[in-house]
Amino acid sequence: MPASRCTRPRARRGALVCAAGLLAATTALAGCGDDTSGAETGWDVNEVQRAFEEGEAQSVTGETVTLSADVDEVLSPSAFVLGGADKPFLVVEKDLPPPDEGDGVRVTGTVHEFEFAQVQERLDAQLSRPLYERFEGMPYLMAEKIEEDIEE
Questions:
Q1: CA distances in angstroms from 96 to 123, 137, 142, 145, listed in the order given
Q2: For 88-132, how does the pLDDT look when each residue is reduced to its tens digit (9 = 90+)?
Q3: Which stretches does DSSP call E strand in 13-126?
Q4: What is the DSSP letter of 150?
Q5: Cross-strand pairs, 111
């Protein structure tokens, strides 16, 4: 009986060390990939888009995330598109200075489903519908914080 008491703690310790190693490896790999310019928290751009495509929008809608990528296109002073993802990813902001095309940015905000009238009302601005039609029903990020010129 004393032998089993000694064996079990060692087995548990080994399992904990193994689990800690797997957690560290998973965390290290989470930042890998060619679609971002830096660290992301919670979800990455492609995961958010995939959730919408698979009918699981509710799993990410309302979530606060930090996404990193290069700015592909500036649509207006209050909206820009992140690049490097499977599809363009829209970011809108109300009171923050817009980044420049090509800048690496880290954006923190809340994920929503794009509905033109709702976004226009949220921004309290007149938007050009043709510029935004391609985003209808897709995820977008309502930015709360934008960090520019981040490095990979």
A1: 11, 24, 11, 8
A2: 999 999 888 889 999 999 999 999 999 999 999 999 888 999 999
A3: 64-76, 79-82, 89-92, 104-113
A4: -
A5: 141
